[in-house]
Write a structure and sequence with these properties.
Layout (H helix, E strand, L loop, with lengths): L2 E6 L7 H8 L5 E4 L8 E5 L2 E5 L12 E4 L4 E2 L1 H13 L8 E4 L3 E2 L2 H14 L11 H9 L13 H16 L8 H15 L3 E3 L1 H10 L4 E4 L23 H8 L6 E9 L2 E3 L12 H9 L12 E3 L1 E2 H11 L3 E5 L9 E10 L2 E3 L10 E9 L16 H14 L3 E5 L7 E3 L2
Parallel strand pairs: 1-10, 1-11, 2-5, 2-10, 5-7, 6-8, 7-9, 11-15, 14-16, 15-19
Antiparallel strand pairs: 3-4, 12-13, 16-17, 16-18, 19-20
Helix pairs in contact: 2-6, 3-4, 3-5
Bound molecules: guanosine-5'-diphosphate, 6-O-phosphoryl inosine monophosphate and magnesium ion (MG).
């Protein structure tokens, strides 16, 4: 069978986790393919709220296998914290969470290097999550990384070699740190990792596909944060687009099925970098308040703005999205009118394709549509959508060229409408 992919089309936090949880019953396996604990995927059901960082969002559905894929970077200390919190709330994980031997380890010194690099950048800092993501992927690509599979053989020696290198690098920065405390938590995390199934995930996944299983690949971050195609250098350090699911799980492009592109009915971004439709006025604050737009990992207020169809068309192209998923529709419930950016104006010229340089002289060209002024949060079927909401959906589908297959009207699992 096939691997379907769910990924974010904006700058992250689109609501991917919720949709993975909703769609998991249709699959046997859910697998994360990139990123690490920079992700914060929120799930709400049965009056409970969970924020998953490294664990795939299929973990709460009965009888499913969840895999931390080879393309991910894992921080054992954070992994321990995350798994123990779930275990304490009654969730048994060891028989349903598998980890790839080839996933890379985030070392305590990677976190220190992340902080040091940000400090050095000063005003042009990226605004990373501080989780050591960039330095861990840097070590992977420069062939200095440690992988989960390494923890079983001569690990102390490999660890010391890697941290000695990092300490030399850190000595160039004027930062103070207490590595001993960090290492204590980290090595306790290594012991925790050993209690899970650490597998050759590429073999496992391909075998299961051959046997007829369906797999859901869960993306983290968003396509506008992709290392190649995002707003570089204000990006994350992994391949967040659909192609990343192939390298991050070890599956051929032939095996990819549906590609679900998740987007908010408006737009947000957390951290630095260009954001052409950003609203720094009271409308932006209203979006932040109504959408509770505060980072699920760092608690930072998210920057808010209108939906950007130039950027969305670009990310839909990169991923060849087959189905769109619109999240947080209810956040716009009280607006008299809603704006959508259909083009950019640069030096008096209108452009519809995302340019190389997304600098400050971009003026978004907006179309203004009537709001629906209706509480959407209790709507259960699409027949009950207000007329203006249907017009917004049709407008977006026409502009983007693909159907919006799922609409989300609230954070809860149940507040999801699968369209016919
Ligand atoms: P992810 O990283 O893409 O999984 O998204 P996050 O979990 O970081 O951010 C999405 C936020 O929006 C979370 O707080 C969700 O609980 C919430 N959310 C998801 N869907 C909806 C929705 O349709 N309406 C509202 N109001 N909130 C939603
Ligand atoms: P989910 O999966 C939103 C952003 C950071 C920063 C940049 C680089 O929850 O959608 P990094 O720590 O990855 O080196 O930071 O990327 N960023 C995210 N923004 N959602 C995320 O994940 C993010 N993961 C990283 O804010 O701008
Ligand atoms: Mg998030």
């Amino acid at each position: 069978m096939k691997v379907d992919v769910i990924l974010g089309l904006q700058w992250g936090d689109e609501g991917k986790g919720k949709i993975v949880d909703v769609l998991t019953p249709n699959y046997q396996i859910v697998a994360r393919f990139q990123g690490g604990p920079n992700a914060g995927h929120t799930l709400e059901f049965e009056n409970q709220k969970y924020i998953l960082k490294s664990i795939p969002s299929g973990i709460f559905q009965e009888g499913k296998i969840n895999i931390i894929g080879n393309g991910m970077v894992v921080d054992p200390a954070m992994f321990k914290q995350e798994t123990e919190t779930l275990e304490a709330s009654g969730h048994q994980l060891t028989d349903k969470l598998y980890i790839s031997k080839k996933a890379h380890l985030i070392l305590p010194t990677h976190r220190l290097l992340d902080a040091a690099s940000e400090k050095e950048k000063g005003n042009s800092m990226i605004g990373t999550t501080g989780r050591g993501i960039g330095p861990a992927y840097t070590d992977k690509v420069s062939r200095n990384g440690l992988r989960i599979g390494d923890i079983f053989h001569n690990f102390e020696e490999k660890y010391r070699k890697a941290t000695d290198r990092h300490k030399k690098m850190l000595s160039q920065y004027s930062i103070e740190y207490d590595l001993e405390t960090l290492e204590k938590e980290w090595f306790a995390g290594i012991e925790k990792l050993k209690t899970f199934n650490i597998i050759d995930s590429e073999h496992f996944i391909n075998k299961r596909l051959d046997e007829g299983d369906k797999i859901l690949a869960e993306g983290a971050q968003g396509s506008m944060l992709d290392i190649d195609f995002g707003t570089y250098p204000f990006v994350t350090s992994s391949s967040t687009i659909c192609a990343g699911a192939c390298t991050g799980l070890g599956v051929s492009p032939h095996k990819i099925g549906e590609i679900f592109g998740v987007f908010k009915a408006y737009c947000t971004r957390v951290g630095g970098g260009p954001f052409p439709t950003e609203l720094t006025d009271e409308t932006g604050q209203l979006l932040r308040d109504r959408g509770w737009e505060y980072g699920s990992v760092t608690g930072r207020p998210r920057r808010c703005g209108w939906i950007d169809l130039v950027a969305l068309r670009y990310t839909i192209m990169l991923n060849d999205v087959t189905k769109l998923v619109m999240m947080k529709s209810d956040v716009l419930d009280t607006f008299d009118t809603i704006k959508a950016c259909v083009a950019y104006e640069i030096n008096g010229k209108k452009i519809k394709d995302l340019p190389f340089d997304i600098s400050e002289n971009i003026k978004p060209v907006y179309v203004e549509l009537p709001g629906w002024k209706t509480d959407m949060t209790n709507i259960k079927t699409e027949d009950a959508f207000p007329k203006e909401f249907n017009s917004y959906l049709s407008f977006l589908e026409k502009e983007l060229g693909i159907p919006i297959a799922i609409v989300s009207v609230g954070p809860n699992r149940a507040q999801t409408i699968i369209r016919k």
